[in-house]
Amino acid sequence: MKDIIDYILRFLIGTDQAGWLSTCIGYTADPRLFDRYQIVIIPSGFFDESTYGTPRSLPSLPLAEIEGVPLLFGSPKTEWAGDTLLVYADLVASSFFLMTRYEEIIHREERDAHGRFPGKASLPYRAGFMERPIIEEYGALLRRWLRQTADYEEIIEPQAKIQKLWLTHDVDAPLFCQSLRHLARETFKGMGLTQAWKLYWRPERQDPYYTFPWLLEQGEKMRNTWGAERCQSLFFLKGGGNAPQDKPHYSLNLRLLHRLAKICSAPGSSIGLHSSYSAGLQPNRILSEKRHLEKAIGSVVCYNRHHYLACREPEDFNTVEKVGFTDDFTMGYADIAGFRLGTCRPVHWINPITKRISNLTLHPLACMDATLCESKYMGLNEEEAIAYVLKLARTVSSHGGELVLLWHNDRVGEFSGAKGADYRKMLQIILSEIITEDL
Ligand SMILES: [Zn+2]
């Protein structure tokens, strides 16, 4: 547990300055140890053996608040014991609960049709703070208390800007109508033979889903304004999968993958694996998909995101880590945009069952395109959706975090309107506003 407590305290304070400051904070209920620290957080009992992992360990609603910040465990009380500030708000357990998706191991029965824990069943949604990365707010409280307890005037707040913008694109379907199979599909189930025939004969780069140059251009514009290091485009390509939800199966077509990889590895962009729906069901399939993609593109792939965001159980990240990924971008909800992990900064994955800190970095996904406007999800109109994303972007900026957006290549093309909203226009407006507001 000690390494987890240390990690969370350092994460709360902010990694650049966390080294020695974290040693000023204790996490103990033993009064004999209080005077060793400037601040002592009193454990709420969440980690007690008799409580941890049982339904009793879950917070009950409504949550208490400490200085306006929702508190999952402990109480808002603070008091002095000599020169030591005793904090009864259990910020360690509260942060742990959020960053590990602890509630998902207690509520195993709570899953949607795709085996995912629904955002609307989550505590952040039910308690009304899905749009607030409250771990950052805990950090701000802790830094303020540290300034109060000693002359730590030099403790700095994170610089208010989006540290990094990830423009990420899941390539579920690279092309709309470029094969005989597509032609048959559109003839019998889609737009009819005449229209499909015309599309079939168009050059590949005029295919409605072939929006890669446009997506790359959006990243390029941001990099030109912000500098290369602050914005990265990421394309997640499939490497396998045979579930109906994995259609179209372009994974076995190495030539197509190779061509896509060439386009998507332009300067400022990288390629990751879009782990299939099948791999969400059977995580041990991820390795062969990773190898398949690596063979096609001729280089090692370090980034992962699951198709349908269906990395079902928290411990499934064990496999993601084991097969050699360093970073994962799956951690957002499909049904509601916001901060699934309670933070807007990259965080090490902690296994809530074994309490092991891994080397895998999770990048919190703030928002997927379809989440915003589809009626089964948030059902916003375009204007509301843009306002919602900008609100998230401003929040990220105020905490100096990173903003991860997911826009699909097939939602910004010619028929994007048919998908319920003009996601192409929305992305343009969002990015230009982010630049105008200097977020
Ligand atoms: Zn997908």
Describe the structure in your own words.
With 439 residues, the protein is α/β, with parallel strands linked by helices. It has two domains: 2-149, no CATH class; 164-174 and 209-330 and 365-436, Glycoside hydrolase/deacetylase (TIM Barrel), CATH 3.20.20. Helix content is 35%, strand content 17%. It contains 16 helices and 15 strands. A hairpin with a 2-residue loop joins strand 5 and strand 6 (84-89). Helix 7 packs antiparallel against helix 8, helix 10 (254-264) crosses helix 12 (286-297) and helix 15 (382-398) runs parallel beside helix 16 (423-436). The two termini are 37 Å apart. The structure holds zinc ion. Zinc ion is lined by residues 170, 172, 274, 307.
Compile the SSE list and pairings.
Elements: H1 2-13, H2 18-21, E1 25-27, E2 39-41, E3 64-66, E4 69-71, E5 74-81, E6 84-89, H3 91-99, H4 102-106, H5 123-126, H6 134-149, E7 164-171, H7 180-189, H8 193-201, H9 212-226, E8 231-237, H10 254-264, E9 269-275, H11 277-281, H12 286-297, E10 303-306, H13 317-322, E11 327-328, E12 347-351, E13 356-362, E14 367-368, H14 369-373, H15 382-398, E15 402-406, H16 423-436
Parallel strand pairs: 1-2, 2-6, 7-8, 7-15, 8-9, 9-10, 10-11, 11-13, 14-15
Antiparallel strand pairs: 3-4, 5-6, 12-13
Helix pairs in contact: 7-8, 10-12, 15-16
